[in-house]
Amino acid sequence: MSIGLALAPARARGVRIARLARSAAGLGAALIAAASAFAQDVQGLRLRSLAATCAACHGTDGRAAEGAALPGLAALPAPYLVAQMQAFKSGARAGTVMPQLAKGYSDAQIAQLAAWFAQTPSTGAAR
Amino acid sequence: MKRRTLLTFAGAAGGLGLAACTTGAPRAIGTPGSARVLVVGGGFGGATAAKYLRLLSQYRIEVVLVEPEAAFVSCPLSNLVLGGATTLADLTRPYERLGTRHGVRVVRDSVARIDVAQRSAQLASGATIRYDKLVLSPGVEMMWDEIAGLRATQQQGRILQAWQAGPETAALRRQLEAMPDGGVFAICIPEAPYRCPPGPYERASVVADYFKRAKPRAKLLILDANDDVTSKGALFKQVWAESYKGIVEYRPQHKASAVNAAANTPKSTVSFEVQDDVRADVLNVLPPMRAGAIAVQTGLANANARWCQVAWLNFESTAAKHVHVIGDAIQIAPLMPKSGHMANSHAKVVAAALVAELNGWEIDPAPMLSNTCYSFVDERRTVHIASVHAYVAVEQTYRTVPGAGGLSAAPNALEAGHAWNWAQSIWSDMLA
After folding, report:
1. Domains, chain B, ordered by start
2. Does A2 touch chain B (CB under 8 A)?
3. What ipTM is given for this predicted complex?
4. Which of the two ends of chain B, N or C, has the fewest CB atoms closer than 10 A to its terminal CB?
5. Residue-wise pLDDT tens digits, B383-425
6. CA dist B8 → A13, B42, B127 (Å)
7. Are strands B62-66 and B36-40 parallel, antiparallel or unpaired?
8. Interface test with B, best of A48, A100, A116 (most B CBs within 10 A)
9. For the domain bounded by A5-118, which CATH number is listed?
């Protein structure tokens, strides 16, 4: 399977379509950015970069690595992700590294991460 | 054949790169003959940077990765090869998908010379690659000459470091297997900072586990130049006391100054600045380390002539424009480990910063880094250390987020499974 360079124009069209859809929806700023997970704008880049701090364990763009038992995060409902991160943060949910790592993210960052992962398809070509 | 084509392309397109750079303004990406980033080094930092430059730019930035090895071999988990629990083959992953899946041009070569004024790199094969931005992830170089006799004995294969996973790892395993029961194995640790702070103590632990099973009368000496165990100290000391009593002995403040592996005896000797000499059947001497040779040679190692200082928002060298240094080679921020996971984190920040810069956008003013590091204490149990690092604008550096991060409560089997899954995941995040 050879993807990447060959598919780039198709992807660019997808981004433009997503932008049109976003402006039509008239949502709040954070939601707009999250509505197109791979949006090629400054806010989209920042959110994807923030989410990349989870990727070493949970897979690139939150898609679990082949053969790894650690859970993927892509396409999980945002309220579920926020609840789990807040439970790790408060100590309500036990764990090994996650209670320690969750405390490193602000409530605003957790909301951004959750919205971003929720909008990211769990399968599909690497983008 | 394929490689020749690649290099020809790189040489031809390089001219375009020069023409554009001379304008002084960054080029918009997504245009024909788009910006080219050259990534040097295919370890945790470089491979991740190459992949994420492609991902985050929506495949608009051209990325060339130069790496001399045919495949990636992971240093994390390689101590288990010394303990006998795994093989190097299990820790080896191909570079192929960076090309086929992500369109990175992977060139199997090494960089002989970098001209930061001309923005070009000359490969060992002679070809020249021009770049708009250079990401240098050169790892560490062993400072052999800091310990008298070490360079020669290492070249003879007598006293090994095995700190770059590969043939030396397998060779040190063979030395340990050949060591008689009742023999002495000594590990010498340099003063911090060095690559992988807990690594030497993990190595001691998993080798002690092997001795316990296979050579119960063997001794293992940890000869540490530092005043105390530099990472996960309480956990390692607990394991040595509980599981390896009579095998492991820890001696701080042992700064190695010379080694001697005489031809007429299988034993080697290590001398110290202050303490008495130690004789061992197998010696594993880690010398002080510094930024990889290409960084030093390019004049980027401007912190104590050992490490590369960078500006933290985009990892640009403070010694050269358009050169971004990541991974173990940099002068670290407070409490930032020289680890594979941290190099992977650096790579994502630099990739995002370069995508922003080349688009004419403001660079993220508040980047974050994460790190999780597992150490095996025997074949079945690990301990972890985890941290989250946030950029603090007023201090212009990264600080660990207060209240976050921490260690395992005790060695445990659950996290040994996590360690293997972490490895599969991060190798995939950088290479697949």
Report:
1. 2-141+290-365 (3.50.50.60), 144-287 (3.50.50.60)
2. yes
3. 0.90
4. N
5. 999 999 999 999 999 999 999 999 999 999 999 999 999 999 9
6. 32, 21, 8
7. parallel
8. A100
9. 1.10.760.10
